[in-house]
Write a structure and sequence with these properties.
Helices cover 80% and strands 0% of the residues. It contains four helices and no strands. One of its GO terms (molecular function) is ubiquitin-like protein ligase binding. Keywords: Signal.
Amino acid sequence: MDPVLYVLAAALLAALIVFASRFRGQAQAADEEHRRNVAAVVARPQPHTDERGEGMPRRRRNMGSRMLAQRRAQQAEDGMEEEDDGDEAAEFQLSGKIGAKKQRKLEEKQARKAQREAEEAEREERKKLESKREEERRKEEERIRLEEERQVGLD
């Protein structure tokens, strides 16, 4: 009976060791998977405006300074030929103390207006250039037609 008891105890110990090693391996795998998931969530970029929730406001981080920089670049590009922008900025300042948020809104509105005017001027310029090209094309066609008539008249 003693050898049977020893074999039974050895089998029980072996089963306990196998069970403990598997359980420990599963725990380590689950812990590692949890770490990877946490790292993936941390590394994931913030959602874009398209991905935002239904009632959530749009993110506007540092929008005022970007719009202000864009407006300054456009003014430098224009060569300060328009004095209206300076007058409008002075008008905003004359109305007394304005909160930063309202000032930023006014600057954004002014930048949008300037952008719209620049696009309109560019469209007009394009139309003028296109009409010039069309006129040159007509003159060239007329010249070619006259040459062909002379050739036909000479023959």
